[in-house]
Amino acid sequence: MRTILLNVALAVTLLLCAGGGNGADCTDSLSVEVDNQAGMNERQVRFAEMREFLWNHWREKKCGNLLFTGVSKEGKTSYSEFKITLIRPSTMVLRVTVVRDRIGHLGKVIPRTDANGAYEAYTIERIITQNPHKDWKTKVIVLGDDQAVPPLKYWLRFKDWEGYPITYF
Fold it and tell me: Is residue 106 part of a domain?
């Protein structure tokens, strides 16, 4: 019985995602790469582009997939996938998975899922604040859906099912 219920739940989820829950297709994606040669201005512009993509899909309740490839100063590559899906008629979820390359025997590159980098967010808010990564206790202003603010000026705050902040993007 449990297997049947899980299969039905999976089928419903796939159908909702395939239709975007509102008739839109689920193939909308954005791929962004930032290497270790990118300057601070270029990084800020690329992250603003990703924030705008995620926010627009979340606000419009549309499925979307953001693939981010980053290269650290040390040359290590990481891949982050942000997948927005509609799991019920008015419930969105953002699933984030991070895969980092590690170097194995004889320099072989081995992609490895980062267990600490996988999470699900059920609320996304646009906020204005100083850099929240430096001080999580800074004062934030939550922006309304109708407020026109360029993505270079706001952060996204991801929250879990119970409404607790997970991270800022």
Answer: yes
CB neighbours (10 Å) of residue 62?
20
Please count the other Cβ atoms lying within 10 Å of the Cβ belonging to residue 50: 20
Domain enclosing residue 116, as ranges:
2-124
Pairing of strands 119-121, 109-113: unpaired
| Tally of domains in the chain | 1
For tokens 């309740």, the residue is 61
| Backbone torsion region of residue 68, taken as left when φ is above 0, otherwise alpha when ψ lies between -120 and 50, otherwise beta | beta
pLDDT digits (tens, 9 = 90+) for 91-130: 889 999 988 777 777 777 776 676 667 889 999 999 988 7
pTM of the model: 0.76
Per-residue HEC secondary structure of the chain comes to CHHHHHHHHHHHHHHHHHHCCCCCCCCCEEEEEECCCCCHHHHHHHHHHHHHHHHHHHHCCCCEEEEEEEECCCCCEEEEEEEEEEEECCEEEEEEEEEEEEECHHHCEEEEECHHHCEEECEEEEEECCCCCCCCCCCCEECCCCCCCCCCCCEEEEECCCCCEEEEC
Q: Answer whether residue 147 is part of any domain.
A: no
Q: Answer whether residue 160 is part of any domain.
A: no
Task: Decide if 46 is inside a domain.
Answer: yes
